[in-house]
Amino acid sequence: MRDPKAIIEQAYSAFNKRDIDGALALMTENVSWPKASEGGKVVGKEEIRAYWTRQWGEFDPHVEPLAMTAEDGGKTRVRVHQLVKSLAGDVLSDSEVLHVFTMKSDLIAAMDLGDEAASSAGPSAAFAHRA
């Protein structure tokens, strides 16, 4: 069994490098992911690919894990430094957020925003300053 923390760190690294294939390789086929910049969720690797492609066309997000805590039920809570810039380089948001990952068979099955009441609602405050 692979270390969930190492898998999650690899996923953040791939995201920051804009390596979609590298990140998706660490996820289940029907992975559930919040659309922080749009609101709601996507399910499945191709929906995540389309969402990230749209997001990176509007914003330049960078997420760096600061602390991880394993929980029961295959969950891992990750405190993250999230820096969101406009494509012109202006800082739109510089904050800490909480991500909660659910692992299944050594892969990421879901990621949820842990510090927002309803990730299915509107976009995260970090992405409120649309270009």
From TrEMBL:
Pfam families noted in UniProt: SnoaL_2 (PF12680)
InterPro entries per UniProt: NTF2-like_dom_sf, SnoaL-like
Superkingdom, natural source: Bacteria
Domain SnoaL-like: start-end pairs: 8-110
Protein name: SnoaL-like domain-containing protein
Organism: Acidisarcina polymorpha
Lineage: Bacteria, Pseudomonadati, Acidobacteriota, Terriglobia, Terriglobales
